[in-house]
Structures are given as C-alpha cells and as structure tokens.
Amino acid sequence: MNLVYSDLQGNVFDHPDFLALGRNAEMITEILDEELIPLPEGSTLVSLPFTRPVGIDAATGDMKLVEGDYHAVGALLPQGFTRLLLPGYVKSDKTKALPLFGYTAVVWKEDGFYVAARLTDNPYYWNPIHCDPNELEVEVKRLVAKYPDNRLYAHLSNCALGYECLTASNTFLQRWEGAVPVSYSCNAGCFGCISEQPDESGFVAPQTRMNFKPKVEEITQIMLEHLRTPESIISFGQGCEGEPSTQAVIIIDAIKQVREQTQMGYININTNAGLTDHIRGIVDAGLDLMRVSTISALDDHYNAYYKPRAYTLKNVEKSLRYATDKGVITSINYLVFPGVTDREEEIEAMIEFVRRTGLKLIQLRNLNIDPESYLGIIPKARGELLGMKQMIEIFQEELPDVILGSYSHTPKFYTSDRSTAAMVL
After folding, report:
1. Residues 231-267 pLDDT 10s
2. Are 242 and 205 in contact (CB under 8 A)?
3. Tell me: the pLDDT tens digits for 305-334?
4. What string of DSSP letters covers 144-177?
C-alpha cells in the first residue's frame, strides 16, 4: 500500500517507493490490510496544511519524510463510516492548527484509494450525492417564499445552500431527519466547537452560529411542514446553534402545539443534556428521541473538552436516565478519536455509562479536531491502547443489546430486522 501525498497546488500522488503509515494519537503506526476499505463514495481527499508526509522506504525499511514541498493527505469520510487511524504525518509548523475536520488515513492500493475505516451504519441517507442541488434550490425558494417572515427558514437556507448541511437540506426537501435550530447560547465551551470559537483559540469555526431567538410560531411552522410522514424526524440541536435546551420554554411550547395538531413523525433533540431540569420538561412535553453528545465517560476528559458551565457529567447521566425511564429512545453522539477513545480506561468507563443509562444506540462520530491541540488538553493515557477496531468489537461483545451506528433512527429501526446494520458491523 503506497503513501499518498499532495503538492502545494493540491495535486494528489501515490509514492512508488514509500509505504503508507497512519497515526494512533501521537504514535506513528503501520496500517493493516484488515483496517482498510475502498474509499467510500462521497468522501473527499484533502491536503493537510503545515504537515509533511511520512512513510516507510520499501527498500530500506526506514521511516522517512517525503523530500520537497509536499503535504500529507487525509480523507474526509461521509457519515456512516468510522475512522480507525489518522493520516501519517509530522507538523512542519507546530504553531499552526489544522482546520476542524476528521482526517482519516488514506493509501493507494493496487488500483484505487483505500482508507483506514469501518462501515458502521447505512450511508445512503447521508451521502451528499443523494441531495440534488437543483431540487434543493427550488425547495428552498418555495418554502422561504411561503413563509417570508420566518427567520429560521432564512437562516437554514444558508445552512443548506452555503454550508451544504444535509440536515438543513432535508428540512427543505421534507424528508428523513430535518433541522430546527433554536439556540444562540450554550452552557458549554467545547474545545472543538464548530459554530463558535474565541479569537485566541487558533481555530476557525467552519459554520456561523445563529444570532437570534426564534418565535414559537417560526419553530412550529417548520415542524408541521416536516412531520408529514411516519418516518420523518425533526431535530432540535444543530451545528449552527448552541445548546438547544437553554431554550426549553419555547421548545416545550412548540412540541405541545405541534402534537395538538399531528402525531405524525418523531421529535428529536441533540443535546449535551447538562440542564437536567430543562431536559425533564422537554421529555414530558412529548419528546420521542434524544441524542446526547459526549466525548468520554471520564470526568477529567469530559471536562477538558466540553468545559461545562454549571453542570457535570452526573447531570448528563441523570438526564439520560430520566428520558430512558420515560420511554424516550436515547443514544449518544460519541465523538471518537483513534488513540484516545480506544484507551482501555475509556472503553471500560463508557461500557459502564451505557449500562447505567439504558442507551439503545451508540452513534460513533469522527471528532473534527486538530490532533495536536486536542491531545494537548486531555489527560494522558493511563492504560493500554487497544485500537479502534478492537474497541468496536469489545462494545459488541459487552453491550449486545446496544446498537452501534452513526446517526439517529426512528423507533421502527430498533424493532425491525436490522440485517443491514448487522452486516455492516
């Protein structure tokens, strides 16, 4: 398997004499055949700025940098695929941070590109090729014209057309899981926040956070437009907003008004679940699904990344337990990173967390972060590093009643034949 690298113009090459390497956190490592799959449809190859590609000289067996002005290359995977290794590189300028994306090791093998990844959910619904830009533009214009005073539709139109957000696009295409952002504020200061970064962070947020408080009418208009089929999902908590439960009052009112008019579809919230009293109110209003973002079940790691304000991981656990007990289908949006998530102590803590909270689904999501910056703020490893592949296998063995996937599903998914999910795992 040949090393893949790029020149300064972004042209991508495979090195005829160098074998590819990957990274597991700070450790450069070999890539095994069993860790590779063909580059998934919908992936993007990107050049990693401020890096140098590193590989193994096939003739000598020595680890070497590629000579000249070249950059390492990584793959950005579509949803449904879990990264097993980072690209093999060293920083050429350690003061610079990589843009906030989830870089995956990529190689050239035989006659095509391969990545160190694993299929963990059906990628169909979140593959960008299934979002027709012409149809999307027509539907954006239609709904914005139908609701000219609805600021949420105007906001989401930029998310869909400008940022190419698939959840926002679904809102206009009126299919699958659609977005209804509600909050401009947050009770956490996530190190890798994609919608708001302090000037001194060194990161550039790839999205712009909403800057207004929507009216209940604006929210209900979107919800009622979207909840038209039995399998539709409308979701509070998007990448373009803060923590939705900070706006619990308007969420509760909107849910109640919508459920007075229709029982169609499902209402979901993507949340950090730190505001337990607010979550209880939202659950009691008629919530169907809840996905809680977490990066760890260990307090020191969780706090280092999320920087929670006036809540703890215990509050998160209480919120999940309450929702589960009330019949809400609960899952976690588990931000995973090779060399960290697959540490022995992380795996053990997460297994116990899942058992205590009664989760139905672990959504494995690749953490978008500059690796060096992330590793610099979290605790050092205390136990053995087992690898992402083995971590997934341990979860499957220890949590047989919990599904491993990548995104939210309707309740039917949990009771029907999940042969596709079983196949990909």
Report:
1. 999 999 987 888 999 999 999 999 999 999 999 999 9
2. no
3. 999 999 999 999 999 999 999 999 999 999
4. HHHSTT-HHHHHHHHHHHTS--HHHHHHHHT-SE
Rg (CA), the chain: 22
Contact of 192 with 86, CB cutoff 8 Å = no
Q: What is the distance between the alpha carbons of residues 125 and 130, in angstroms, rounded to a whole number? A: 7
CB atoms within 10 A of CB 198: 10
For residues 155 and 223, the answer to whether their CB atoms sit within 8 Å is no
For residue 266, give both structure tokens.
């499902």
pLDDT digits (tens, 9 = 90+) for 357-384: 999 999 999 999 999 999 999 999 999 9
- 327 Rama class: left (phi>0) / alpha (psi -120 to 50) / beta: left
Distance CA 24, CA 29 (A): 7
CB count in 10 Å sphere of residue 92 = 16
Exposure of 249 in the CB half-sphere (CA atoms within 13 A): 3
